[in-house]
Specification:
The complex is a heterodimer of chains A (about 160) and B (about 450). Chain A is of the alpha+beta class and about 160 residues long. Helices cover about 35% and strands about 25% of the residues of chain A. Chain A has one domain: 2-Layer Sandwich (Heat Shock Protein 90). Chain A has six helices and five strands. In chain A, strands 1-2-3-5-4 form a five-stranded antiparallel sheet. The N terminus of chain A is likely disordered. Chain B has about 450 residues and is of the alpha/beta class. Chain B has three domains: about 55 residues, Alpha-Beta Plaits (2-Layer Sandwich), CATH 3.30.70; about 280 residues, no CATH class; about 50 residues, 3-methyladenine DNA Glycosylase II, Chain A, domain 3 (Orthogonal Bundle), CATH 1.10.15. Helices cover about 40% and strands about 10% of the residues of chain B. A four-stranded parallel sheet of chain B has the order 6-5-8-9, sandwiched between helices. Chain B has a three-stranded parallel sheet with strand order 7-11-10, with helices on one face. Chain B has a two-stranded antiparallel sheet with strand order 1-4. In chain B, helix 4 crosses helix 6, helix 4 crosses helix 13 and helix 14 packs across helix 15. The radius of gyration of chain B is 27 Å and the shape is elongated. Classes of the chains: A alpha+beta (about 160), B alpha/beta (about 450).
Chain lengths: ~160, ~450
């Protein structure tokens, strides 16, 4: 697993990059506030319904839905605040989640199924099963994660059509 | 559009063009045009919400006429379990089934018995390792259509086992053949609590042709049965009641969950609640569930739009009846299992997705239209009043982009435009040609009332 060096490369999905040849078409950006469970999942829900209107294939939509929901919930449950951005291009969808939060001390460990740092309270609510990051990775064709302790975490997911 | 048939239709004379139905339709399938409701066939799932909500009873479900019974030599009624809950509890179920037979049938086969068979089949299916979890029940046809239209990616989660209604149709037909009747001379009719079942008989999903020839609603035959009940002679009774509580309980929500015996099971009722749960399934939140029973109507089939009894009272009654007939399956489990292994319970055809039309077939153009739609939505008042004929501002914006509506359909925007025009007219009326002009048009802008 590689971590990426500069955010900018990923934050401007319309820039040509050698893996993604498809032309950039549109983006959606959502501000997510940490700890706010009232509106948790709304961003993923909106993303999903928009992609349906665009006529994106439903197997792709299902993967995007799972990946965006997991990233959104990670921000809500662990971070102070963050943004979830979705870029639609001709041949792929890119999801970028950037948060300001505690960061992940050991990314390798967090990528293991069942590993979780969630508190008892969060587990009681049905979250924190330690499947978030592994699920995200399963849904993506390209997956990158970078975390700075005390600063925050960035996740980039690419799903090709 | 030829392959889309709906049992829910509109009685134009009764429709007053109010907006009750458009605002309650779970798939936003209704618009008001020319003072009348119009159902968008590609979006309608026949759930019957509009039949329930319409204050003028303008939404109707088309069912068969009892006269169609004369087309067949041997007629079999297959009543839904919910049927049992519609009458006084003092009436014995066997007497009730005999009264049903007396209105013009030759035999009655209980869907409740088929439901027992399906419970056993589903329990076995859930033991498979290669299914897509969570498995979703296929018994409610409105839910199947909801998934085809709104959640096509969840089709692979639907349990590919026939509904109790179809299995009952199959068994009833086999019974008729055993008696020596030719298949085409046997008429099998479902006694239905809802319009979605009627549609699924005429346009079945997952099977080429339904085993059932038609349907009568509970509301339609109710008074006939009440009449027959008083004249039934106990000495002539045929033994028609065979099912146990395990099948009867399918008539209420939670019944399937009870009768199916495997793993982690969830039961949801009410179409809006089902949509919420399916959204969660879509996001991968319910992967730990084995089985989800989804019922479009609140309370399950007893809450169907074509029932007579209040759904809460019907629930209590059906639960008591189910208890009376016990927990032990009335059917031979080994026989069901053998048939299951032969593949007799499985759907014969693939369930096809019927997703909502994208904004455009070309992704680039669809994106353009979506941006345009968002721009329109910003200008709309956000009242969601429905006066334009669409259920909310979002739907109107989409209709405009798709070319089905225009911005001036919004009365708020229309009023704004009229205001602008009126202001321009006032301003114009105050201008004086220079030849006549003595003074400047006075105090320009004082007409501004904001």
């Amino acid at each position: 697993m590689k971590s990426y060096k500069s955010d900018k490369k990923y934050l401007y999905a319309d820039r040509k990059d050698k893996n993604h040849k498809g032309k950039f078409l549109m983006s959606m950006r959502f501000d997510i506030s940490g700890g706010n469970l009232d509106s948790a999942g709304e961003a993923s829900s909106t993303i999903k319904s928009k992609l349906k209107q665009l006529g994106i294939g439903y197997s792709i939509i299902r993967r995007v839905a799972i990946a965006s929901y997991e990233t959104e919930m990670n921000i809500v449950l662990h971070a102070n605040r963050g943004t979830l951005s979705v870029y639609v291009a001709e041949d792929h969808i890119k999801i970028i989640a950037v948060d300001e939060g505690p960061g992940i001390p050991n990314v390798e460990l967090a990528m293991q199924e069942g590993y979780s740092t969630a508190t008892e309270q969060i587990r009681e609510m049905g979250f924190g099963a330690g499947m978030g990051l592994p699920n995200m990775k399963k849904c993506s064709d390209q997956f990158e994660i970078h975390s700075d302790i005390g600063k925050g975490t960035k996740v980039m997911i690419v799903i090709f059509f | 559009m030829r392959d889309i048939y709906h049992s829910v239709t509109l009685d134009k004379d009764k429709c007053r063009g109010c907006t009750n139905c458009i605002k309650n339709c779970p798939t936003e399938a209704i618009r008001v045009r020319g003072g009348k409701a119009a159902i968008l066939k590609s979006k309608c799932i026949d759930c019957g919400e509009c039949i329930r909500i319409c204050p003028h009873h303008a939404k109707i479900a088309s069912t068969d006429d009892l006269k169609t019974l004369s087309n067949y030599k041997y007629n079999i009624a297959i009543p839904a379990p919910a049927f049992y809950s519609q009458f006084s509890e003092d009436i014995d179920i066997n007497i009730l089934l005999n009264a049903l037979k007396a209105i013009g049938f030759d035999y009655v086969y209980e869907v409740a018995e088929a439901a027992e068979r399906v419970s056993i089949a589903i329990t076995n299916y859930l033991k498979k390792n290669d299914r897509t979890a969570p498995s979703i029940s296929s018994s409610c046809p409105a839910i199947i259509r909801l998934i085809q239209v709104r959640f096509p990616e969840l089709i692979e989660n639907i349990i590919p086992i026939n509904s109790p209604m179809e299995i009952a149709g199959k068994k009833a037909r086999e019974y008729g053949v055993q008696l020596g009747y030719r298949d085409k001379d046997i008429g099998v009719f479902f006694i239905t609590p809802c319009p979605a079942k009627v549609t699924s008989i005429l346009r079945p999903v997952g099977v080429k042709k339904s085993y059932i020839n038609g349907a009568f609603s509970i509301t339609q035959i109710y008074s006939e049965i009440i009449k027959k009940l008083s004249s039934i002679n106990e000495a002539d009774l045929e033994n028609l009641q065979k099912s146990s509580g395990q099948g009867i309980i399918w008539g209420v929500s939670g019944g399937e969950k009870h009768a199916v015996d495997y793993g982690n099971r969830l039961s949801v009722d009410g179409i809006h609640n089902v949509i919420n749960v399916l959204e969660e399934v879509e996001m991968g939140k319910l992967n730990n569930m084995d089985y989800i029973e989804c019922q479009a109507c609140i309370g399950g089939c007893i809450g169907g739009a074509l029932t007579v009894e209040n759904r809460f009272i019907a629930r209590i009654k059906l639960e008591r009846i189910a208890r009376r007939y016990g927990q032990k399956f009335s059917v031979d489990c080994d026989e069901v299992l053998a048939d299951y292994k032969k593949g007799e319970y499985f759907l014969k055809e693939e369930i096809k997705p019927k997703p909502i039309q994208p904004l455009d077939k070309n992704l680039g153009r669809a994106v353009e239209k979506m941006k345009h739609m968002e721009k329109i939505l910003e200008d709309l008042p956000g009242l969601d009043c429905g006066a334009c004929g669409a259920p909310n501002c979002q739907a109107l914006a989409e209709d405009i982009v798709r070319g089905y509506a225009q911005e001036l359909d919004c009365i708020i925007i229309l009023k704004e435009r009229v205001n602008e025009l009126a202001e321009k007219m006032v301003a114009l009326s105050k201008t004086v040609p220079p030849a006549m002009g003595i003074k400047e048009p006075e105090e320009e802008g004082t007409n501004n009332w904001d």
